[in-house]
UniProtKB/TrEMBL annotation:
<dbReference type="Pfam" id="PF01464">
    <property type="entry name" value="SLT"/>
</dbReference>
<feature type="compositionally biased region" description="Basic and acidic residues">
    <location>
        <begin position="187"/>
        <end position="197"/>
    </location>
</feature>
<feature type="domain" description="Transglycosylase SLT">
    <location>
        <begin position="57"/>
        <end position="161"/>
    </location>
</feature>
<dbReference type="InterPro" id="IPR008258">
    <property type="entry name" value="Transglycosylase_SLT_dom_1"/>
</dbReference>
<feature type="region of interest" description="Disordered">
    <location>
        <begin position="187"/>
        <end position="250"/>
    </location>
</feature>
<feature type="region of interest" description="Disordered">
    <location>
        <begin position="92"/>
        <end position="111"/>
    </location>
</feature>
<feature type="compositionally biased region" description="Low complexity">
    <location>
        <begin position="204"/>
        <end position="231"/>
    </location>
</feature>
<protein>
    <submittedName>
        <fullName>Lytic transglycosylase domain-containing protein</fullName>
    </submittedName>
</protein>
<dbReference type="InterPro" id="IPR023346">
    <property type="entry name" value="Lysozyme-like_dom_sf"/>
</dbReference>
Amino acid sequence: MSRRTAGLVAAFLAGLALVVVAVLVVRQLTAASKPELPVVPEARRPVVEIAARVCSMLSVPLLAAQIDAESGWRANADSGQAQGISQFAPDTWKEWGRDGNGDGKADVWEPRDAIPSQARYMCHLYKMVKVIPGGSTRLGSTRLALAAYNAGPSAVIRARGMPQLNETRGYVHKIMHDLLPKYRKAEKTYQESEAKHRSTKRGTATPSPSSPPSSDATASSTALSPAPDAATEPRPTAPGVAAPTTRRPR
């Protein structure tokens, strides 16, 4: 009788061990299959945040998703027809490239020049597509502005909407339906984490006697504030007028 009991106990324990192992394996597989959210590289965040304030239609997730689709955040990306982190065609860069880092030259390979230039160009494209059917809504204008960035404004104007180009349609779909939702979630997580960090820091800070802000703090605050864009915006391309070079599949 005791042997039979011992055998039943051993069988029960063996079965329990198998169940535990199965649960752990399922959890591991579930965790491994959960996609990680993309993030804005720490080195690029300051310039992306400032660029996102160029016009109300832009946001950090939108610019980040576009850069991801264009170059995968690689500053040296070169398709042969477009260059740099924001993938400007040479003719488009001639018109829209600006010196963003204050070194006296507009360099398409320098992200601090290219990303603000990308933002200004996108704001211009948003204005252009307003007159196109479907371009008066925020969603429609974003789709058409992205299409114009990829294929060239003239292609969108001729099509009176989304061009019949597989590359352009795939580009817009990838940003709108894949990358943008992920970057929105990632940005929400980032902002919540930053808010929690600031709250914790305030809660643990030791009160100190009142004193006027130091000159270093004032200078730092001024340096981080975006300077107004004094440059005159290039004249918008009118329908029928040659626009920047259409980019072909890279």
